Amino acid sequence: MRMKSPYIISLLFLVVSLQLWAAIPPGYYNQAEGMKERQLKTALHNIIKDATVLKYGGQGVGYTWEGFTKTDMLDGNKVLDRYSNIEREFNGLKAVSGMNIEHAFANSWWGKIENQAYKDLHHLYPSDGPANIKKSNHPIGVVDGENPYDNGVIKVGKSSSRGEVMTAWEPADRYKGDFARTYLYMVTCYEDFADLWRGDGLKYLLENNTYPVFQEWAYKLLLKWCKDDPVDDLERERNESVYAIQGNRNPFIDYPDLAEYIWGDRTSTAFYTQPESLSPELFIPEDKSTIDFGLQALSLGAEKTFTVRGRNLSEDGLTISSSNNLFALSKQKVTSEEVEKGVEVIVSCAPTVAGQQSGVLTFSYDGKIETVTVLADFWDGIPAYEAKNIVCTPYSKKFTASWMKMPGVSEVTLSVYTKDGDQNQPLSGYPKKVTSTEEIIDVPKAATTYYYKVETDDMVSNEVAVVMPAVEPVFSASTTEISFFTAPGRPSFAQQVKLTMVGMTTYRTEIVSVYPFQVSIDGENWGEQAVITNGNNPVLYVRLGAVDEGIYEEEIILSTLDVDDDIVINVSGEANKEKAFFENFENGSKSAYAEGVVVCSAASWKLNDAVIGNLENDKKNDSKSVRLRNEGILEMQDAKMGGVGTLSFYAGVYGTDAVSSFSVFYNLDGGEWIPIEEKLPLIKGEWREYSYPLNKEGNIRLKFEQVGGSSSKRINIDDITMDDYEDPSGLKKHTESGCIIHSSQGVLTVVTSEKSVLSLYSLQGTLIMQVGVEEGENSYSLSSGAYIVKVGTQTKVVCL
Question: What are phi and psi of 435, to 5 degrees?
């Protein structure tokens, strides 16, 4: 087990610090030297934002699991798991059975966009699968309330860290600092995600800004954890390993006190990597760096602004000189005070002839000399730039041409062409007049060189060559995350993954799954491997096989010869007799109200005047729920086997819409629809669970219908759960924890297995009646209307 001693850390602080500094490349943090608070965070962002990340998931060289063998391998080939105490060994460069790749900083918080952040090893860790499922996308915090999950390393449960109750996950004490520094890294490296933060991350932890990003409670907690669990050798070694792979570092590991300068009690103090140094230093511009003007217009000249910042210079300050008189400086003498604060200097160049210019700027101070190279290229006319956004797929072949905006020029003629020897072959539709400074150009062929230039009556641009690559094959899947729920010993409902394969030389896809997840190409024959040879909109079926009760998580790998990157589908499943059927609609997608069938986690559903909503006003338990309007219908298309013991689901009024009602029905073995609840009124602002002990044998389907709805009277349905029917003890099982509450023709009926108290309220919360109830059946005649009925711990709204 990993252990830390504050005494050892204290005694070895100097030695460790010297070793640490030696590992950091000289000048790596120069841009951050002397900066404070938000400016310091932005400077760090600019230093660490670019990384060469591995391909996500997969197996073999160049994938995440290979990275883990370098970042998280302990002695004896053991995996360092920060989420559980289960010991597992690496399996070569393949995924470790029972483990998954965990985004410590939940990827749903930026919309699961598979960008650099999605693959960044600084926040990816190998994790025990069941622990990762429990962690989900909950915010990090102290679990101090109801604690339904504790495996000895992480806890998941209720937390008051934010000042109001939320569900959070909490790492073990020995890893609290590790994850705190990971979170600090993420909001710094991805400072430009300010507008992307969403979901539970935005609700409980983050803000849509670049500083401070974290809500106040969050950064205070993370700072505390950084102090309570200091950086240790394993963290330093991991930082070095990730740096060797990606080329960027976690600065909060390199400098453990750094976060205090951004969010803590040192925000008014300038940060220096060596705060006690008295030596004269120039941090920026860096010695031997280059200032490149790029292509410029001869008629306009050009200028660039750079910052000079350093410290401890003598009172003589600093002088700047240029080896080429064409590069003029706005400031050649800089005082030591200006250097300490940082001062902007402009270098300008205005030659009289076109062509390339170069020079060297010399910075002299306290007997030291540092140099910066300056480069510029001038065109006598309109500078046209290199093409950008080059796309070459079976569906689209295009690039973006761009050029400089010239004073007094409102329109240019754009020519696009290929060449046949000395002859230009114009692209259809060109030359043409354009008024912007860039144009998206669609081209007919791949693996072809195109050229473009722009001109006016008295100016012409340079010619730009654009080499279109060969067509990139398209290999994609309709989803890369699937979850399943089933009863122990029974395979789950099968879900479909639609594949897109275009531009292949060979249409062959190999699929490799890992027990207990199974794949099929026809929905009938199941196994852990499959091969698809059909390139015409192929479909892969996936399910959780028959397993014992528990939580499972693995990866399914899809590969094809024409594409280097495999498709990795993350699959998770839970076998739980209480959730023999569990539909949370997270796998479904439907944005139009027109009738349609959607395949979700547990069944296919027909939605009419209904969508799967993910808006802020949609009431939901995760990121999606069904939204009904008008007389909307949600109808289950695939029957659940094994009957039903108890049915439960969540329902509520959408946003601030007006109140309406809904009805719930079931049918058995394809028979008639039988009402469970009719015209049940919802309470505005309430989102609650409804539960019904049905105790029915057979194959069951459900139907939900909105009553009295409209475009401004919408409702949400989510998390539909059914366990199996159990005979002969099923009725007892489904009543002992509560009771049956039923209303019909002016009579309220309560069936309970023990004595209790019935409380009857109006919908406004006024107590109308309170009586004792006996074991068995109790009936009460009531006036027509809607009531809230509470018996013991069970509450239900009834309409008479």
Answer: -110, -10
Joined together, the tokens standing for residue 730 give 């099923």
**Which pLDDT score is estimated for 785?**
73
Closest CA to 445 of 462, 424, 463, 428: 428
18 — pLDDT class (breaks 50, 70, 90): very low
- pLDDT tens string 30-39: 999 999 999 9
Q: Determine contact, residues 107/118, Cβ cutoff 8 Å.
A: yes
Q: Under CATH, which number does the domain 576-734 receive?
A: 2.60.120.200
Contact, 446 vs 468, CB < 8 A? yes
Give me the phi and psi of 186, to 5 degrees please: -65, -45
Q: Which CATH number fits domain 388-467: 2.60.120.620, 2.60.40.10, 3.90.1170.10, 3.40.50.10860?
A: 2.60.40.10
645 by Cβ neighbours in 10 Å (0-12 / 13-18 / 19+) ranks as: buried
Give the whole-angstrom CA distance, residue 639 versus residue 642: 10
CA distances from residue 566 to 56, 482, 675 in whole angstroms, order as listed:
9, 17, 48
pLDDT for residue 13:
39
| Main-chain dihedrals φ then ψ at residue 740, nearest 5 degrees | -100, 125
pLDDT of residue 119: 96
Give me the pLDDT at residue 738, please: 54
3-state DSSP of 468-496:
CCCCCCEEEECCCEEEEEECCCCCCCCEE
Q: Which two three-digit tokens encode residue 486?
A: 């089933």
Are 174 and 3 contacting, i.e. CB atoms less than 8 angstroms apart? yes
Query: Which strand (E) or helix (H) includes residue 176?
Result: helix 173-189
Q: What is the largest CA-CA distance in the chain?
A: 103
Q: In this structure, which amino acid lies at residue 15?
A: V
Q: Return the CATH class of domain 281-379.
A: mainly beta
The CA distance from 664 to 497, in Å, is: 30
Residue 310: enclosing H or E segment and its boundaries?
strand 302-311
Report the pLDDT value the prediction gives residue 323, as an integer from 0 to 100.
98
CATH entry, 739-800, from 2.60.40.420, 2.60.40.3080, 3.40.50.11010, 3.40.50.11420: 2.60.40.3080
Q: How far is 424 from 401, CA to CA, in rounded Å? A: 18
**Range 474-560 classified under CATH 3.40.1010:** no
How is residue 562 written in tokens?
A: 């024409």
Q: Where in the chain is the domain with CATH 2.60.40.10?
A: 281-379, 388-467
**DSSP three-state, residue 435:** coil
Cβ-contact 322, 329 below 8 angstroms: yes
In this model, does residue 554 exceed pLDDT 60?
yes
